[in-house]
């Protein structure tokens, strides 16, 4: 694994011209946390970036999808919405004539899973964790294509000599999240579980906090080189996962301590000054604290 | 005498929720023959005295369970044979050990088990039996109906009714005359509204005991909560349709006068709007 890491590091450095959005260089993004370069992403327009051999990231507005081009067709991920999917399909056509054979959902939330019909129309097979199908059925959305194939644990998709591992860690952000790992294993496409350099969304919808921490620890145990982000920085050093895990642990500990010491105005009192540098911290810390109050108060 | 007069003024001049704002003094109120509402504004449970023992519901916490056990003993010498959980949240289900120790059988909807396993708690007694759809629990001369409406507030909520009475036990789906928690933890707003509509359309009941709030409330309080949810969701949906961002909605949301008088409106309305915004944009 060490050898493979070295090879890819070399490949990263020697990578050809990439559309880096006029933002920070890949070298800058691959520095460990805390890394201010992770805040240098853009939100306007859209772009397609070649990350590695056959591996691309498409971004529109603030959301990204991973694309794997193989000799026997294309594997796309989160269609996000109808417009995102349409432009992504156009951008794929500029890279390859291959048809889109598969679409993988990272998880069930509509800001990632809507809009796949254009891929369905060309015959793509849709894949998600089985728990996503329950959410899609429970709360239908007219523009969500239901998955054709579901799975209960990890799943490996093979196409045109490439392999894509879908790693399931149990409940964390919702209960059907997969982290995607294309061969040879140097990159993890991680949606929502970490947005490098940022504080978590205010009230952490649908998160199970202690399973979230557990999942991040399990990701930290994986030997890989770079995060590909669903939001925020295009690529990031794996320490972004550790930074998020440490933020959550500090948040959980601080709220727990405050509850046990009888602090009454916890939302005003609990702060994490050591993480003030995180993007969005000022706007989100109070809601983060409120979310963890609920976790300790009602077990949700 | 002065106290009495002040109290009278409150009753006539304040919204219905303000008529009983004693948050912490627990009391027992018989709401139908043998059916009791027990608790305070902060947490409330139902217990049922039958000819062959007692059916208790949510123990809430070790302290509350001990207090409720004493309150039951003031009404009857019968042992507690069953404890039924309304749903999985810790602010209702903890502290049942005192009933377990006297041999009670614990019952919940089966979906609660997943939550109890995912989020263990030392003060939680695991259910001995589970139900998966509408069920009946008969003990002595009474039958307690356990009604399941699918996901709404969590996905293991049971609404209860002693057969032959016109009183329901509806935990957390409605807190009488209150808007409820702003960001609606664990709620599925669409399914919640559906559940309220189904309860409103259901015959055979006129009053309910809530999991928080006043001892017993008229059915109209449920209808009011339903109207509040409809107004809130319509307002947010209309805002999204006209291109409002979350920040705009958060700052400008305002509902009609009837809803502005509900308990907690000023505290919770902005977060409620945020929650519904996520419902319409993220499917959560």
Written description of the protein model:
The complex is a heterodimer of chains A (300) and B (284). Chain A is α/β, with parallel strands linked by helices and 300 residues long. Chain A is 35% helix and 22% strand. Chain A has a single domain, classed as 4-Layer Sandwich (Metallo-beta-lactamase, Chain A). In chain A, the strands form three sheets. A seven-stranded mixed beta sheet of chain A has the order 1-2-3-4-5-6-7. In chain A, strands 8-9-10 form a three-stranded antiparallel beta sheet, with no helix packed on it. In chain A, 47% of the residues are buried. The N terminus of chain A is likely disordered. Chain B is α/β, with parallel strands linked by helices and 284 residues long. Chain B has one domain: Metallo-beta-lactamase, Chain A, CATH 3.60.15. In chain B, helix 6 packs antiparallel against helix 7. The termini of chain B are far apart. The chains are: A alpha/beta (300), B alpha/beta (284). At the A-B interface, helix 4 and helix 10 of A face helix 10 of B.
């Amino acid at each position: 694994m060490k050898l493979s890491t070295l090879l890819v590091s070399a490949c990263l450095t020697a990578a050809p011209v990439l559309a880096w959005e006029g933002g920070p260089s890949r070298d800058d993004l691959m520095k460990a946390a805390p890394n201010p370069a992770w805040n240098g992403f853009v939100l306007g327009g859209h772009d397609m970036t070649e990350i590695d051999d056959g591996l691309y990231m498409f971004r529109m507005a603030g959301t990204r999808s991973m694309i794997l081009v193989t000799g026997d067709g294309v594997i796309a991920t989160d269609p996000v919405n109808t417009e995102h999917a349409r432009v992504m399909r156009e951008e794929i056509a500029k890279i390859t004539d291959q048809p889109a054979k598969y679409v993988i959902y990272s998880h069930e939330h509509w800001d990632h899973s809507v809009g796949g019909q254009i891929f369905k129309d060309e015959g793509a097979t849709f894949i998600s964790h089985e728990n996503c199908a329950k959410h899609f059925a429970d709360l239908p959305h007219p523009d969500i294509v239901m998955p054709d194939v579901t799975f209960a644990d990890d799943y490996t998709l093979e196409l045109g000599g490439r392999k894509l591992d879908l790693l399931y860690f149990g409940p964390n952000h919702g209960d059907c999240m997969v982290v995607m790992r294309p061969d040879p294993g140097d990159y993890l496409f991680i949606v929502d579980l970490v947005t490098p350099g940022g504080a978590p969304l205010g009230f952490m919808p649908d998160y199970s906090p202690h399973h979230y921490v557990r999942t991040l620890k399990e990701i930290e145990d994986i030997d890989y080189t770079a995060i590909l982000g669903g939001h925020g920085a295009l690529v990031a050093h794996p320490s972004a996962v550790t930074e998020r895990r440490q933020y959550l642990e500090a948040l959980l500990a601080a709220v727990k301590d405050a509850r046990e010491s009888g602090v009454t105005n916890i939302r005003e009192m609990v702060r994490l000054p050591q993480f003030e540098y995180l993007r969005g911290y000022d706007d989100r810390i109070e809601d983060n604290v409120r979310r963890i109050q609920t976790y300790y108060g009602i077990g949700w | 005498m002065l106290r009495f007069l002040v109290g009278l003024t409150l009753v006539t001049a304040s919204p219905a929720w303000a008529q009983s704002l004693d948050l912490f003094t627990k009391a027992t109120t018989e709401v139908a023959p043998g059916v009791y509402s027990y608790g305070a504004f902060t947490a409330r449970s139902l217990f049922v005295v039958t000819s062959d023992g007692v059916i208790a519901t949510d123990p809430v916490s070790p302290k509350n369970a001990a207090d409720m056990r004493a309150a039951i003993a003031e009404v009857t010498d019968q042992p507690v044979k069953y404890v039924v959980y309304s749903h999985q949240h810790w602010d209702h289900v903890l502290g049942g050990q005192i009933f377990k120790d006297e041999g009670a059988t614990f019952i919940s909807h089966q979906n609660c088990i997943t939550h109890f396993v995912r989020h263990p708690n030392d003060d939680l007694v695991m259910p001995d039996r589970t139900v998966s759809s509408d069920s009946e629990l008969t003990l002595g001369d009474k039958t307690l109906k356990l009604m399941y409406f699918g996901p709404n507030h969590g996905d293991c909520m049971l609404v209860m009714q002693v057969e032959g009475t016109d009183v329901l036990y509806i935990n957390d789906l409605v807190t009488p005359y209150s808007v409820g928690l702003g960001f609606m933890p664990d709620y599925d707003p669409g399914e919640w509204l559906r559940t309220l509509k189904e309860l409103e359309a259901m015959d055979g009941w006129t009053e309910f005991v809530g999991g928080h709030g006043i001892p017993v409330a008229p059915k109209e309080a449920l209808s009011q909560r339903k109207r509040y949810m409809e107004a809130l969701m319509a307002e947010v949906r209309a805002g999204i349709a006209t291109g409002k961002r979350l920040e705009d909605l958060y700052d400008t949301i305002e509902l009609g006068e009837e809803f502005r008088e509900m308990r907690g409106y000023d505290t919770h309305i902005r977060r409620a709007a945020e929650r519904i915004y996520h419902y319409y944009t993220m499917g959560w």
